[in-house]
């Protein structure tokens, strides 16, 4: 790696007309100038393409390249940009998220100080639709990283992660399988780790992630079901490879399944769907009977029921 790093900013966009300008502004306002921007319109039904065209005309020096494809899902949209990329690192940015001005400069500095790293991720702010903000700390991953990600859970956010381009392309990018849709980023991190990627955590808040709230039940079930599809897929692979004792893999399965049900229960609790929350907490308890978080969640649910 030379003493300068070029980034390829990969932005998937689907019906992104209302908010993509803010994402593009956050890239254009970067203090670090060495980047290209690769937008993939994933078959939008709104005027996303026209918004991007007008933006490019308004800012002619902004290095943006727009492509449109038939709808493939977010994995396919990211791959379109990923395989057009020419930078040293690919910095992913979802169309409804944004970066702070020093983001790319900080990542470049960190990469030059830690030249063996292949994946660099940072902390970010979660912004709710009502404007409420909270900091998301992602923390360093323990070695071996593949085990940590699979046995403990995902610790990375796509818009807060940059990946060495050659490695990302060598593992064929993101899965486009429907069974991983909305969890394709987690599956991508797992394959990167399994391929030997070295992960580094930059403990700074460098962007904002928009939390989409008010999700319908089917969408919540769909996402968390696909997260567990990723876990199950990789556990099955380990079983076939005979890489770990079956007894360990069964324990991991129960632990991650219980975690999955617990998180789903929390989501339902936020939506006020307390019966669904209770059912998921009880399933989590059956799978992980000694996990204190489930008991605490059940107590909170009981207090909410008593109050009203």
Describe the structure in your own words:
The chain is of the alpha/beta class. It has two domains: 7-210, Spore Coat Polysaccharide Biosynthesis Protein SpsA, Chain A (Alpha-Beta Complex); 217-307, Serine Threonine Protein Phosphatase 5, Tetratricopeptide repeat (Alpha Horseshoe). Helices cover 47% and strands 18% of the residues. The protein contains eleven helices and nine strands. The protein has helices spanning 20-28, 48-58, 74-82, 103-113, 145-152, 165-170, 184-194, 217-241, 246-270, 274-287, 292-307, and strands at 7-13, 35-42, 64-69, 89-92, 98-99, 119-127, 133-136, 161-164, 199-210. Strands 1, 2, 3, 4, 5, 6, 7, 8 and 9 form a nine-stranded mixed beta sheet that branches. Helix 8 (217-241) packs antiparallel against helix 9 (246-270), helix 9 packs antiparallel against helix 10 (274-287) and helix 10 (274-287) runs antiparallel to helix 11 (292-307). The chain is globular and about 60 Å long. The protein starts with 6 loop residues before the first strand and ends with a helix. The mean pLDDT is 94. Residues 8-131 form the Glycosyltransferase 2-like domain. TPR repeats lie at residues 258-291. GO terms for molecular function: glycosyltransferase activity.
């Amino acid at each position: 790696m030379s003493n300068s790093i070029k980034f390829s900013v990969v932005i998937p966009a689907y019906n992104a007309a209302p908010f993509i300008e803010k994402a593009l502004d956050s890239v254009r306002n970067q203090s670090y100038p060495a980047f290209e921007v690769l937008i993939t319109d994933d078959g939008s039904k709104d005027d996303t393409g026209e918004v991007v065209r007008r933006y490019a005309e308004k800012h002619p020096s902004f290095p943006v390249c727009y492509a449109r494809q038939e709808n493939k899902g977010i994995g396919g949209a990211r791959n379109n940009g990923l395989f057009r990329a020419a930078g040293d690192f690919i910095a992913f940015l979802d169309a409804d998220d944004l970066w702070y001005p020093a983001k790319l400069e900080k990542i470049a500095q960190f990469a030059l100080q830690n030249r063996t790293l292949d994946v660099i991720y940072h902390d970010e702010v979660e912004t709710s639709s009502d404007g409420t903000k909270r900091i998301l700390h992602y923390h360093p991953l323990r070695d071996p990283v593949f085990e940590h990600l699979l046995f403990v859970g995902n610790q990375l956010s796509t818009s807060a992660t940059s990946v060495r381009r050659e490695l990302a392309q060598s593992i064929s990018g993101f899965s486009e399988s429907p069974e991983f849709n909305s969890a394709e980023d987690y599956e991508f991190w797992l394959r990167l780790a399994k391929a030997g990627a070295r992960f580094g955590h930059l403990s700074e808040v460098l962007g904002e992630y928009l939390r989409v709230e008010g999700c319908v039940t089917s969408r919540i079930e769909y996402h968390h079901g696909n997260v567990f599809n990723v876990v199950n897929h990789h556990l099955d692979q380990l079983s076939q490879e005979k890489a770990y004792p079956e007894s360990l893999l069964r324990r991991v399965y129960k632990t991650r399944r219980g975690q999955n049900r617990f998180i789903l229960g929390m989501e339902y609790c936020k939506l006020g769907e307390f019966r669904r929350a209770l059912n998921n907490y009880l399933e989590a308890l059956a799978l992980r009977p000694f996990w204190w978080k489930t008991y605490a969640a059940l107590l909170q649910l009981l207090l909410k029921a008593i109050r009203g």
